[in-house]
Write a structure and sequence with these properties.
The protein is mainly alpha-helical and 309 residues long. The chain contains eleven helices and two strands; from the N terminus they run ααααββααααααα. It has a single domain, classed as ABC transporter involved in vitamin B12 uptake, BtuC, CATH 1.10.3470. The chain is globular, with a radius of gyration of 19 Å.
Length: 309
């Protein structure tokens, strides 16, 4: 049970980061972006390209071992690659918005949702054309799962160092994001736009600037989630498509527009997937997110932290 809990928390932390970006996009842009998962996939592959560039330039990390068994993969090259990927993914999101969504914004949310399907197909096939369909890995070294809880205690709990870093960095990112939205001028402006666009406009807040801020912030969080997913599992062109349903399940479960709801929803969906693998089989893992999504829509459509209306 403890091992399933640990695995579920790792999966849930990845889903939470992607879900935060998705719920911010919906709250400010007012449409469900079905191409958000592709930003995760592009972010993971852009980090891989950045690592390849660092290696070609001869940048190495003295702390990174060359032994077949590595204590962790989070040396400074991967952290730098994560930053580069986040910036480039934000640029990709702004380009998609400028080329497509900005021109259709006055047509209504349904038009934007349909356009996001087309954008997702185009971006996914562009990724497949650029990198191919062979799964990739950030590092070839093996890792030994470390015991966090003694085996005598309910069977024990083991986790790899990379998974531990993912949990830690996710926690730091969520806390920093909460501070940004609560304390910074830009964060308060984004919240005001999400609550009441017209009133925010009267107060002197530029909606278009908030749109761009939402794209940048959501894309950077998506890139982080993609890198973490590639680090703990593998990189593949369908990474974003595979995570799309869990992302929407987390957003709806927590309440559309709620950052902390997205975090809690992501953790719940991750735990549901982890326990589903053990109880009903790995082939039903994706169905766990669908079951959680359907149950929440039937019982409490506005989600755990969503507001009425």
């Amino acid at each position: 049970m403890l091992q399933l809990l640990a695995d579920g928390l790792v999966i849930g932390s990845i889903i939470s980061l992607g879900a935060i970006g998705l719920t911010l996009t919906f709250a400010i842009l007012r449409f469900s972006n079905f191409g958000h998962g592709e930003l995760l996939a592009w972010g993971s592959y852009l980090a891989l390209s950045a690592l390849a560039v660092f290696a070609a330039l001869g940048f190495t990390d003295p702390a990174m071992p060359s032994a077949p068994i590595a204590p962790f993969s989070f040396g400074w090259p991967l952290m730098a690659a994560l930053f580069v990927a986040a910036v480039l993914t934000a640029g990709l999101a702004l380009a998609i918005d400028w080329l497509l969504f900005k021109r259709l914004r006055l047509q209504g949310s349904i038009t934007l949702v349909i356009a996001s399907f087309g954008a997702a197909l185009a971006v996914r096939n562009g990724l497949l054309f650029t990198y191919g369909g062979i799964p990739r890995y950030y590092a070839q070294e093996l890792q030994i799962a470390l015991p966090l809880v003694p085996r005598s205690f309910l069977g024990g709990m083991r986790i790899t160092p990379d998974q531990l870093f993912v949990l830690g960095l996710t926690a730091v990112t969520v806390v920093a994001l909460h501070w940004f939205l609560a304390k910074s001028t830009l964060g308060r402006s984004m919240r005001a736009t999400a609550d009441n666009r017209e009133l925010a406009r009267v107060a002197g807040i530029d909606p278009e600037a908030m749109h761009r801020a939402a794209w940048v912030l959501g894309a950077m969080l998506a890139a982080m989630a993609g890198v973490f997913a590639g680090l703990t599992v593998q990189l593949r062109p369908t990474l974003g498509l595979d995570l799309l349903l869990p992302l929407f399940a987390a957003v709806i479960l927590g309440g559309i527009g709620s950052v902390w709801g997205a975090v809690l929803g992501g953790l719940i969906v991750g735990l549901a997937e982890s326990f589903a693998v053990a109880w009903v089989g790995a082939e039903w893992r994706a169905a766990a997110a669908f079951v959680v999504l359907t149950a929440m829509l039937l019982v409490r459509p506005r989600g755990l932290f969503g507001e009425r209306g």
